[in-house]
Model the fold of this input.
Amino acid sequence: MKDAMIAGLVDGTALGRMGDPDEVAAAALFLASEDSSFMTGSEVSVDGGLAQI
Done:
């Protein structure tokens, strides 16, 4: 059952794979850093393109 749920999620992403925790952490670190200092009111989706399909 769990494998079928994961396969369904993977099939729904544009990248066709599960995300790695390091990829999510990189986005969080970017938002916490000075590199994002000029960003306001933005959404950052770290979902492999799931929201775009």
In short: The mean pLDDT is 92.
